[in-house]
Design a protein that fits this description.
Elements: H1 3-15, H2 22-32, H3 35-40, H4 43-46, H5 54-63, H6 69-77, E1 81-84, H7 92-95, E2 103-108, E3 117-121, H8 128-143, E4 147-150, H9 156-166, E5 171-174, H10 179-186, H11 192-201, E6 202-206, H12 218-229, E7 232-235, H13 243-253, E8 257-260, H14 271-278, E9 282-283, H15 288-297, H16 325-334, E10 339-340, H17 341-348, H18 352-364, E11 368-371, E12 375-378
Parallel strand pairs: 3-4, 3-7, 4-5, 5-6, 7-8, 8-9
Antiparallel strand pairs: 1-2, 2-6, 10-12, 11-12
Amino acid sequence: MDLFMADTSLYLQLALEPGLGPVSIRRLLDHFGGIQTLMGAPESALRKVPGITSRHVLAILHARKTDPRPEREEADRAGVSILTQDDPLYPPSLLAVHSPPCVLYMKGHLSQADHRAMAMVGTRGASQYAMEQAGRFSGALAREGYCVISGMARGVDTASHMGALQAGGRTVAVLGCGLGVGMKRLFVDQGGRLAESIAAAGALVSEYPMAWPPSRQTFPRRNRIIAAWGLALLVIEAPLRSGSLITAHYAVEMGKTVYALPGRVDQSGTAGSHSLIREGAQLVTCPADILADLESMAPPADPSPRAPEIPLMPPPSPVPEILSEADQAIVQALAKDPLAIDQLVAVTGLAARDIASRLFFMEMRRAVRKMPGNIYQLATR
């Protein structure tokens, strides 16, 4: 086993130990100066590290006995790479925070260009306006060479990833569970094609072991990675009780600029965004409001040519096979006549917000077209 592989195994031993978190691992690595010194240090030396308790020491001793080979083999079978903090592709912005992920599991590929990144987040229950604006902003950022970082959740996150892909740019999705769990979920529903496209033009990443399930604790931890990775953070739309506000607070603690898009004042789904603006987030109305600032924050652009535009799916058929039952109900209604959202509500019985969200996904997959007057028709008509 070469030195790099050996170091990866040592990092994995720490990452797989439930009794250790990113803060304690960072403290230990800083104290000992490297992974090999840490994992070879005697127990007496471990007990002298400031901030490290007896519980932590026992966890380290237990980690040294952990066999990382099954985890590596599972990752290899899934085509997942494992980056350690010593890897040159590990994002330097993550190393700058006090709780960097011990390792990053990666499906796809990262590049030095991904250091020029913008984080974008928002609510899962996004309005049609929010979905459109997420695609607009992420597309503009991608065309200027910025990698779009988001969380692969439904709503604003998904629209942000899709906008970057449609612009031929790069995007990274940070998952709140292990990639082994996440990819199974993503590839069995309508997000599967999006996940494939992200892996082809960027990466799906996670700090969690392959089989780690999502929980109420994993997503806030995931949000700190999104906040840390981006040069700045854009909140597209968020209610008051929202993971997006957690991400924004992480960004503020890290000294990042937070931008927020204003929305309708009579909708609860925008109350969190407006609260951020009152607290000092910069109000933005167009991508140019952000791009001028980013140039002063970002490292030099990668001179290599932009990645070619990657289609999210083959040319659409009248009822694409990946569509859910609700999507098919919309398509069947539009097969008769072009309709507005309120007309689709009457025909399908679906909620207006749900229809707006699904139409956005279908439009990005080129299954439907939006016509003047907010009328939708099948793209094959």
